[in-house]
Design brief:
This protein is an alpha/beta fold. It has a single domain, classed as 3-Layer(aba) Sandwich (Arginase, Chain A). It has eleven helices and eight strands. Strands 2-1-3-8-7-4-5-6 form an eight-stranded parallel sheet, sandwiched between helices. α7 links the parallel β4 and β5. It is globular, with a radius of gyration of 19 Å. The termini are far apart. Belongs to the arginase family. Agmatinase subfamily. One of its GO terms (molecular function) is agmatinase activity.
Length: about 350
Amino acid sequence: MSAMIGKRGVHYLQKLKSANIPIAVIEKGQNRVIDASLTLIRERAKLKGELVRALGGAVASTSLLGVPLGHNSSFLQGPAFAPPRIREAIWCGSTNSTTEEGKELNDPRVLTDVGDVPVQEIRDCGVDDDRLMNVITESVKLVMEEDPLHPLVLGGDHSISFPVIRAVSEKLGGPVDVLHLDAHPDIYDAFEGNKYSHASSFARIMEGGYARRLLQVGIRSITKEGREQGKRFGVEQYEMRTFSRDRQFLENLKLGEGVKGVYISVDVDCLDPAFAPGVSHIEPGGLSFRDVLNILHNLQADVVAADVVEFNPQRDTVDGMTAMVAAKLVRELTAKISK
């Protein structure tokens, strides 16, 4: 089903070309859809920014932005369906709206939502990934223009981290430090020939100079190329096989000194599948949920933005356990960003 959806835009573009529709007409139509998409994000961000500023007292306020993109996955495309499931779990009522550190999510100065980038609608017009990545980057910048909003992005597969971190770095005017929690380093040069693969996002980030320091935690599925690429870019890779040795350091991190801030990217498969089975790439031997929270809670940093990616609702349990896990990650990241 999801693979068929992913190909729909390509087929539509081929039909237009075969019908001898001039390229200029096609591009004009694509531009209208892109402009409408950006207008939607812009106006929602303005509305939420005005509300937060009117309430006053917020130095930084988290705003959710969904990027339901799954076609750059190398295995399953289910993460495209994650943002609405995460939102549903955040507000499902089975728990209260207070984070572990005492932030109240019902307060708009702590958390707002500007909706989703309409990824599939844009792709249905035949827009290629170069332009789509630019749309995602511009959408993130539109959120950041509405001070004090800071984006917390709901994926989607991990390919979204490249355009998001690019936006954050460019908007702030310099590189950020990145804390990346994942079972995989996602640093292939171009996995299966796709430079925008979810397994290549951090190669694009490091090539672009958008991150000064990249720490990858939870790694337990890494190839020779992954290690070589890590060395090439000076990445600090912390594998699960040495986690007991590294725990003290990782649970007392201090990041961001001398750069524009810290970005946190959480791939849900950083967790052991016992805690989060609803992922595309199941890798036993991962972090416990409390391990992750200890790392996040104890982190000393100015966290300026974050993402939660690779939750796959199509592989979740019947009771939506992984959705609740992803929602809890969003809640605690919100507390880390909002000030």
